[in-house]
Amino acid sequence: MNLEVGMIVEGKVTGITKFGAFVDLENGKTGMVHISEVAPTYVNDIKEHLKEGQTVKVKILSIGNDGKISLSIKKALPPQNSGSNRQQRNFSAPRPNGPGNFEWQPSKQPESASFEDMLSKFKQTSDEKISNLKRANESRRGTSRRGNNFQNK
Fold first, then answer.
1. Cα 133 vs. chain centroid, distance in angstroms?
2. Nearest-5° angle of CA 63, CA 65, CA 70?
């Protein structure tokens, strides 16, 4: 059976380097899985994910004119597990509050609110958020800057 780009086949890991792993395929051919194609998450140490002698499913990404075969383990995973298709992720999932428990989306203003009313409300909300942030930062430090005696020498 001839290997073609896009096929998913099984192979055996025969060698591991810091940049990828070599996989023996059928017909005595060998391909390489780059470290970025090992898992759907960031891989710092490839040996945490693969072992020599391990059988893996790989997708053939490319076959060069020189015979080099580029492989991917993460693209051979089922679509819901691969994480490589960003369109399937839900980045716009509603969150009740953003970082610091602040609402980042303004509440709906009535249609009849004037620009001045909306600006006044915005300024008030902004001032409240800034003072809350300052208070939170001071409490994390355990002391306020006002209590420290800094002198320029």
1. 27
2. 25
Structure tokens at 134: 């300052």
Domain spanning 8-77: which CATH class is it, in words?
mainly beta
Q: Decide: residue 31, CB within 10 A, 0-12 exposed, 13-18 middle, 19+ buried.
A: buried
Q: Map 1-40 to HEC letters.
A: CCCCCCCEEEEEEEEECCCEEEEECHHHCEEEEEHHHCCC
Domain ranges of the chain: 8-77, 99-142
pLDDT of the residue at 108: 57
pLDDT single digits (tens) 99-147: 555 455 555 555 667 888 888 888 898 998 888 888 888 877 765 555 5
Q: What is the pTM of this model?
A: 0.51
Identity of residue 131: S
Please say whether the beta carbons of 69 and 29 come within 8 A: yes
Q: 43 is written with which tokens?
A: 């891989």
DSSP 65: T
Bridge partners of 8? 59
Q: What angle do CA 43, 48, 50 make, to 5 degrees?
A: 95
